[in-house]
Amino acid sequence: MINAIKKIDPNWLVPRQINAFCTTREGGVSKTPFATLNLGLNAEDDSADVLQNRSIVRSNLPNEPIWLKQIHGVGVSTPSSRASLVGGVVEADASVSNIPNEVLAILTADCMPVLLASRDGNVIGAAHAGWRGLSGGVLENTVKEMLALSPGLSPRDIQVWMGPAIGPSKFEVGEDVLQAFSAHSQSVLEQAFKPINQRPGKYLANLYLLAQERLRSLGIEQIDGGEFCTFNDSENFFSYRRDKKTGRFASLIWISELT
């Protein structure tokens, strides 16, 4: 029996072998404040509940997802790096694949999950793009590894979906975050960082806009998503900024074998 979890399907037009969805906080067994479909083992939730939640999600997938140990960095896990891995823990903030039924997963609770797929349906990627990873180049690194998996692939042949993240009306940041983007995002800085009245050095930042700028600078044109706010939508999403002690939801993508 397939568990009836509540999930979000990306609003993008990709080849039929590309499968993807984002979980919500509904459909699991975790108790408050992790209620109910918390998938993060490092969120201080009961590990048995988290593993049961992961089992529920697994029933909707062709394989166990590649769960990353995310560190707010820019490292990308590839099929070759995973094949040579000793110990089983994949420490990275993005992953790519060209292997059918290999499920990539990103856990978030305000940071942006970014899913990528080539137009021919042969290569996929998933990235954890909080402000540190985004300013550091996690999207650039993910695209680079996708291109390496498919000689001849161009950034123009890659489609992107920006999953649920904290929205521009709620993501308050300081001068350090603005400076982190100033070297590479000059064209959108004024739009992406809105000064907060009577609070010098404080801004409302637009992660979606900053990600779009990075992706377009690489030559990627088809970018969808960006309409969510995890902070404002407590019914569907965990939010660290809103609740501090909270769970994590997953964004997942894989390539099906065509029959």
Structural summary, described in words:
By secondary structure, this protein is of the alpha+beta class. It has a single domain, classed as CNF1/YfiH-like putative cysteine hydrolases (4-Layer Sandwich), CATH 3.60.140.10. It has 8 helices and 15 strands. It has helices at residues 47-58, 79-83, 131-136, 138-149, 175-182, 189-192, 207-217, 240-243, and strands spanning 7-8, 18-23, 68-69, 76-77, 90-91, 94-97, 104-108, 112-118, 124-129, 158-162, 172-174, 193-195, 202-205, 222-225, 249-255. A hairpin with a 6-residue loop joins β12 (193-195) and β13 (202-205). The longest helix is centred in the N-terminal third of the chain and has 12 residues, at 47-58. It is globular.
Number of domains: 1
| CATH structural class | Alpha Beta
How helix-rich are the residues, as a percent range? 10-25%
CATH superfamily: CNF1/YfiH-like putative cysteine hydrolases
Would you tell me which CATH topology applies? CNF1/YfiH-like putative cysteine hydrolases
The order of strands across the largest sheet is 4-6-9-8-10-14
Shape: globular
- Counting DSSP H or I runs of 4 or more residues, the number of helices is 8
Beta-strand content:
15-25%
Strand segment tally: 15
Instruction: Report the oligomer.
Output: single chain
**Rg:** 18 Å
Termini, distance in Å? 23 Å
Question: Which secondary-structure class do the elements indicate?
Answer: alpha+beta
